[in-house]
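Exercise 7. Given the encoded structure of a 303-residue chain, write a plausible sequence.
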């Protein structure tokens, strides 16, 4: 497995990324990555497709080992950009920025991120590599190398894509991997929403919050409740909100579904099938909404 991010699988770097190491203070804030507890790391691992449970008063892998496993999974799934965007998202630093004056929060956040990247690069220096953040994306390059960033092609979301993901998720359910199935359902909705926003000529939110993406879709396609619309349609739109919220919370970092012990929600086969069928139906519906707007745009051009 060869990947530019492999070089980050260094115990010292992992200790920086999981919040074990701090580098002083700035404007009263701890200069460090947010501290990731064992249970938090297990929540992140589930979010990124690596099932790892944390047992209280039990035998657990070291925190750096869990993070290393997450990185391995993300390398295999080509989701390292999403992982680093998630880890470095400003909202994750909220606790340590709480006492910073509002006018200084952005400055403080940028300072902390720059220090973290610089400290990681001190370790990478001896391998003639460096980590950089460019246009919100993270890259490993040779020191001083000019980096050419290609504009990523927009993933085509169509009914074949939905069907293929449905079949893969259904296989997970048949094999008893219900948590993995729910994660795929959330991913399906996230990617359909991103596709819809991109097709509307806008940039999808990279916060990792599926509700924010859904709100972007509603804004882009005028899907808000309308008093002039048939009340039954408004009722359906309200129902969509509830279904999307429920699926998101199943894999949201603050959801009990990530918890362990007495807090963990057991997902059973019939639950997983309900989630899969709901997500697939929603994905097909939003794809139809995108196609309708594209058809209308073409008709306007030809008129």
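Solution.
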């Amino acid at each position: 497995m060869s990947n530019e991010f492999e070089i980050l699988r260094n115990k010292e770097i992992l200790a920086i990324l999981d919040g074990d190491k701090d580098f002083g203070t700035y404007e009263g804030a701890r200069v460090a990555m947010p501290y990731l507890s064992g249970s938090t790391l297990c929540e992140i691992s589930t979010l990124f497709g690596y099932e790892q449970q944390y047992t209280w008063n039990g035998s657990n892998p070291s925190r750096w080992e869990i993070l290393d496993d997450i990185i391995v999974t993300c390398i295999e799934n080509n989701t390292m950009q999403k992982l680093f965007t998630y880890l470095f998202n400003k909202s994750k630093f909220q606790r340590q920025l709480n006492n910073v004056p509002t006018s200084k929060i952005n400055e403080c956040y940028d300072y902390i991120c720059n220090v973290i990247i610089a400290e990681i690069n001190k370790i990478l220096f001896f391998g003639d590599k460096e980590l950089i953040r460019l246009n919100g994306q993270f890259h490993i390059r040779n020191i001083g190398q000019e980096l050419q960033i290609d504009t990523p092609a927009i993933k085509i979301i169509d009914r074949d894509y939905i069907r293929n993901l449905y079949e893969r998720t259904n296989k997970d359910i048949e094999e008893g991997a219900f948590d993995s199935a729910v994660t795929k359902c959330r991913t399906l909705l996230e990617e359909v929403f991103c596709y819809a926003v991109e097709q509307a000529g806008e940039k999808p939110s990279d916060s990792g919050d599926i509700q924010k993406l859904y709100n972007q879709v509603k804004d882009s396609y005028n899907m808000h409740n309308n008093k002039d619309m048939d009340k039954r349609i408004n009722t359906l739109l309200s129902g969509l909100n509830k279904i999307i919220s429920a699926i998101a919370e199943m894999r949201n970092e603050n959801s009990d579904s990530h918890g362990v012990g007495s807090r963990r929600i057991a997902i059973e086969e019939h639950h997983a099938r309900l989630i899969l069928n709901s997500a697939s139906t929603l994905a097909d519906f939003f794809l139809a909404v995108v196609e309708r707007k594209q058809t209308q745009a073409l008709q306007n051009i030809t008129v």
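Remark. Residues 253-264 have pLDDT under 50 and may be disordered. Students should compare their own answers with the one above.
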